[in-house]
Amino acid sequence: MTEAPIPEIDQNTPSIARAYDYMIGGKDNYAVDRAFGDQINESLPGAQAIAVENRKVLVRAIREIVTQTGIRQFVDLGSGLPTADNVHQVAQAVAPESRVVYVDNDPIVLAHGRALLDENDRTTVIQADVREPEKILEHPATRSLIDFEQPVGVVMCAILHHLNDDEDPAGIVRYWYDRVPSGSHFFISHFRTEHNPETAEIEGMLQTTFGRGRWRDDEEIRAFFDGLELLEPGVVPTAEWRPDDIEGLSLVGKTSQQRELTVWERLIVAGLARKP
């Protein structure tokens, strides 16, 4: 198949994807991205903690799927740069035969991703918009790697909160639900509003930074899992979703479930569910 041309990378303009890569400890970023990431951290001192916790919970969820099920294929929607502890690294460390399709609408991701994954024939990256799921499903790269007759891991990590209600994020989840077989798993993480003054200011600052989307409350986020079997511990702050012992330890030796979470840790939640 003929691949789309790789866009030229502008090293003088910051990229959200590369800045996120910097904030989680990746190396595929430029000075302009690091400056932008430092600016975010200075104005929003807990933003890096959110990014790191979100990546940690993604690692735990993929590891759970690969070790506890026979799923060996994943579609990662709104993936960002596939660089630091991402789906293919975690899955293939356990099961080298695992196949991953990364999807992002940022041309930067396409340019970097192809170079990063050039020697991995079980992993690819395509430039597409999560709001147009049929184009993702029918993309030749998707069809070449993913067998939709077999269970699939559908990953929606920190992507649905970038969509407004009129863009029907629930309908996007339902689209994939209708097209994967029983036994498929869905992982979703999402910014969460608690409708209180304590978090309202932080929510407003982050919303201004991202420029679009909508935070949702617990009930709205759980609704994305309608029709699915929500696995334990349900939809909870990422720091409390099946924490590893070493990750869950605080300075006083308590697990994350025993200590009070910070305001920042409460702002992003995650859940994993199985299609019956």
Give a structural overview:
Strands 1, 2, 3, 4, 5, 6, 7 and 8 form an 8-stranded mixed β-sheet that branches. The chain has helices spanning 16-23, 31-43, 47-68, 87-94, 107-116, 133-137, 140-145, 169-179, 197-210, 218-223, 245-248, and strands spanning 73-77, 99-104, 123-127, 153-157, 185-191, 229-230, 236-237, 268-274. Helix 8 (169-179) links the parallel strand 4 (153-157) and strand 5 (185-191). Mean pLDDT is 85; it is low at 246-257. With 276 residues, it is of the alpha/beta class. Helix 3 (47-68) packs parallel to helix 4. The relative contact order is 0.14.
Structural class: alpha/beta
Give Rg in angstroms: 18 Å
Count of helices?
A: 11
The number of strands is: 8
The CA-CA distance between the termini, in Å, is 35 Å
Could you tell me the mean pLDDT?
Answer: 85
Helix content: 25-40%
Q: What portion of residues belong to β-strands?
A: 5-15%
Features:
276 residues; eight-stranded mixed beta sheet; alpha/beta; 11 helices
Write a brief caption for the model:
The protein is of the alpha/beta class.
SSE layout:
Elements: H1 16-23, H2 31-43, H3 47-68, E1 73-77, H4 87-94, E2 99-104, H5 107-116, E3 123-127, H6 133-137, H7 140-145, E4 153-157, H8 169-179, E5 185-191, H9 197-210, H10 218-223, E6 229-230, E7 236-237, H11 245-248, E8 268-274
Parallel strand pairs: 1-2, 1-4, 2-3, 4-5
Antiparallel strand pairs: 5-8, 6-8, 7-8
